Amino acid sequence: MLNRFYILLFACAISFAPNSFAQPAREHAKAEAAAVNEFLNDLAANNGIYMSIRRIEFFSDLAKGQQPFATVVTCSDSRVHTNMFSRAPEGQLFMIRNIGNQLTTAEGSVEYGVHHLHSPVLMFVGHSRCGAIAAVSGNYSKESEAIRRELDTINISSNLNNMDGVQANVHNQVSAAMIKFAEAIGKKELVVIGAVMDFADDMHSGAGKLHIINVNGESDRSKLVNVKNLLSERHLRTH
Q1: Domain map (residue ranges) of the chain
Q2: Burial (CB count within 10 angstroms: exposed 0-12, middle 13-18, buried 19+), residue 206
Q3: Judging by DSSP bridges, how do beta strands 209-215 and 191-198 pair with one another?
Q4: Where are the strands (E) in the chain, listed by range?
Q5: What letter does residue 113 receive in the DSSP assignment?
């Protein structure tokens, strides 16, 4: 009798369990589908607005080719985008994004911008509260091999706070670029700029401010106050 009771109980468990687990899964799938659909609708709406505020001549000019003024390497972080420092990036900024705004992990793309598109500016943009800097300041051994490989090339001291680490990394990227593109820099065909987008006001100059912290290895803040003069006088040939 007892065995028959357990068999019946087990049968009931089998018959009811799928529904009990399947219902939340179905609801989750519906929510995900709705979110994706809303995202796609937003993309279409925003693209429509973008198209409506641009003249056909604008797109005709873009279709002819590109001559960007700057090759810009930023972090992949979703909080950092070109609208933070440019209202018209199309055709002007050759954008490259990767973990930790690095030269090493995007070398081919950077070369293309500098050597093939002949952009006179190469710019590395770090940012406040950077996850890549937080990772290399701690233990990231449990990350996937692909992620570890990209983090391994960020070489900063482990005892730095996040913002100091961000700035140290930007300086390192500028230094590496100056070695790689030494000939173009020597001919004053290229200037390498290091910057930090501080959306968290960690540098205490206002949330959302873009700080120029390095120009061809010059990181003295007092000399970087007037970047325009610095560029025209010492680092970049005027055309």
Answers
A1: 1-53, 65-235
A2: exposed
A3: antiparallel
A4: 70-75, 93-98, 121-127, 191-198, 209-215
A5: I
Residue recorded with tokens 């589908």? 33
Pull the structure tokens for residue 143.
Answer: 């990350």
- CA-CA distance, 94 to 117, in Å (whole number)? 9
pTM for this model (two decimals): 0.83
For 157-213, what is each residue's pLDDT tens digit? 988 999 999 999 999 999 999 999 999 999 999 999 999 999 999 999 999 999 999
Strand pairing category for 121-127 and 191-198: parallel
pLDDT, one tens digit per residue, over 19-73 is 656 778 888 888 888 899 899 999 999 999 999 999 899 999 999 999 999 999 9
- Identify the CATH number of the domain defined by range 65-235: 3.40.1050.10
The 8 Å CB, 24+ separation contacts for 175-180 are 175/217, 176/103, 176/104, 177/103, 177/110, 177/122, 177/124, 178/216, 178/217, 180/103, 180/107
